[in-house]
Amino acid sequence: MMPDPNSLYARVGALVRAAGVDNFRIENNILVMCGVRYEIERCACDDPMCNGLRLRRFDGDADTSIALQ
Question: Would you say the pTM of this structure is higher than 0.85?
């Protein structure tokens, strides 16, 4: 079962704001932060410090992902 997108997006927004980034928006399941587009995904790693979110840079065929902590 997928998480409620609204709560997932609320968590992402809170984390991004806490990091001091004000220049972002979420549109069509994509986080646009400082002009760079990221897909928001659930992270399945086993790291106890992980908050369960991962961002994958959305550049068409580029495949770069980062954990959002």
Answer: no
